[in-house]
Amino acid sequence: MPIMDTPAPSPSHDAQLAVQAALSGAAVVRAMYGTSLARVDKGGGDFATAADLAAEEAILDVLRRARPGDAVTGEESGRGGAEGAARRWLVDPLCGTLNYAVRTMLVGVNVALQVDGSTTAAATADPFNEEVFWTDGDGSGDASGAWLRDAAGADHLLAPSAASRLVDVNLDPPFPNAPDFSAARLLAAPGFAERFRPRVVSTTLAVAWVAAGRRAAYVTDGDLRGSVHFAAGIALCRAAGCVVTGLRGEPVLSGPDGLVVAADTETHAVLLGLVRGQQHGPGSGGDRSVRA
């Protein structure tokens, strides 16, 4: 993994809190793994487990004790605090619930703080590798980069890299940009197979992996505005220097146009070319003029 032994800055109080909250949720997720878990049906094939609920409560407890005046949006508990609050925490206590429910250790715990609509601190914890990816901002201001805190508590600066050629593609619905864009068609496009190797991890932990150099890129459809799932990962990737846009190259989170995050401009350009090629019609196979 391209990590750099650059001395870490002192995290802001908010970044420290994001890390602490994410690690608290991760500890619950780890402790409850493999146990018999009650499920809460959320409709449309979606569900939460008792671990989702317990992890969210652990995270909220950390945030409430430290920042009682802040608003919070939790994946399971919904919106709390003043609607017009300038500071709002976005909490996704267990991203990859289906993986977790079938005893697959591919999940993430996401915590992000938005101040007046901009992400100013974020953390994504991996409960089973005991790692947490964190940043003081989203790269749009004076962010200090993105960092990996390992199990020993040491921080390492993250450096994106496309060397792996691995691209994670989210195949979970909804698909608001269909039929112009289909994740399944993207994987089948000859131009994709010539350049990349697909992965489907089914957790936004994979977004943090782009910042860490473990993935070349990540692609998803969907309206991600205000998303508790993606806010932390997008902030991490921006702060690390990744290229982050919507599916059509527009500013990310400016509309319901999904996400393309890539380690570098070349990888990003190739993926956008393949996405544009889908608009020629189903089965077009993408834009064959795009090459490495």
Strand order of the largest sheet: 1-11-10-9-8-7-6-4-5
User: What's the mean pLDDT score?
Assistant: 90
Class from secondary-structure proportions: alpha+beta
* Helix-strand sequence: EHEEHEEEHEEEEEEHHEHEHEEH
Describe this structure in words.
The structure is a single chain. This protein has 292 residues and is an alpha+beta fold. It has helices at residues 13-32, 50-66, 97-101, 183-188, 190-195, 205-212, 231-240, 265-278, and strands at 3-4, 39-43, 46-49, 71-74, 78-80, 87-95, 108-115, 118-126, 131-135, 146-149, 155-158, 166-169, 197-199, 217-220, 243-245, 259-262. The protein has a 9-stranded mixed β-sheet with strand order 1-11-10-9-8-7-6-4-5, sandwiched between helices. Helix 1 (13-32) packs antiparallel against helix 2 (50-66) and helix 6 (205-212) runs parallel beside helix 7 (231-240). It is globular. The two termini are 22 Å apart. The model is unreliable at 282-292 (pLDDT under 50).
Descriptive terms for the model:
alpha+beta; 9-stranded mixed beta sheet; 5-stranded mixed beta sheet; 8 helices; 29% helix; globular
In terms of topology, how is this protein built?
Layout: E1 3-4, H1 13-32, E2 39-43, E3 46-49, H2 50-66, E4 71-74, E5 78-80, E6 87-95, H3 97-101, E7 108-115, E8 118-126, E9 131-135, E10 146-149, E11 155-158, E12 166-169, H4 183-188, H5 190-195, E13 197-199, H6 205-212, E14 217-220, H7 231-240, E15 243-245, E16 259-262, H8 265-278
Parallel strand pairs: 4-6, 12-13, 12-14
Antiparallel strand pairs: 1-11, 2-3, 4-5, 6-7, 7-8, 8-9, 9-10, 10-11, 14-16, 15-16
Helix pairs in contact: 1-2, 6-7
